[in-house]
Design a protein that fits this description.
- This protein is of the alpha+beta class.
- It has one domain.
- 32% of the residues lie in helices and 24% in strands.
- The protein has 4 helices and 5 strands.
- Strand 3 and strand 4 form a beta hairpin.
- Helix 1 packs across helix 4.
- The radius of gyration is 14 Å and the shape is globular.
- The chain starts with a strand and ends in an 8-residue tail after the last strand.
Length: 101
């Protein structure tokens, strides 16, 4: 299992609700969970906007019930913030965890 940082940020800044640390086998597994449990990810998916398709990820998921995790990852990687109402959603694998005393 690996740790992943799932972050959804906008131009207003970063808040404790802007990110989650998830334990999963891969980015693909996180995307699969987003498809299987969209309510858990609703706040992220509703504000993340796919610039290429001109649609919020939440709406895209609901309009495409056969969406596969690989395509969802592409859509997530296409998100960007616009300074007004769109958020950027990303899934990063955490490579190292540093300890401090």
């Amino acid at each position: 299992m690996h740790l992943f940082l799932v972050a959804c940020v906008d131009d207003e800044g970063i808040y404790d609700s802007s990110f989650r640390v998830i334990e999963a086998t891969s980015r693909l597994a996180v995307a699969k969970d987003m498809l299987q449990n969209p309510q858990r990810w609703k706040s992220y998916l509703q504000s993340a906007y796919d610039e290429e398709c001109k649609i919020f990820i939440w709406d895209y998921i609901h309009q495409n019930p056969d969406l596969i995790p690989e395509l969802l990852l592409q859509k997530i990687d296409n998100t960007d913030l616009d300074g007004d109402s769109f958020s950027q959603l990303r899934i990063f694998e955490i490579q190292t965890v540093e300890k401090v005393d």
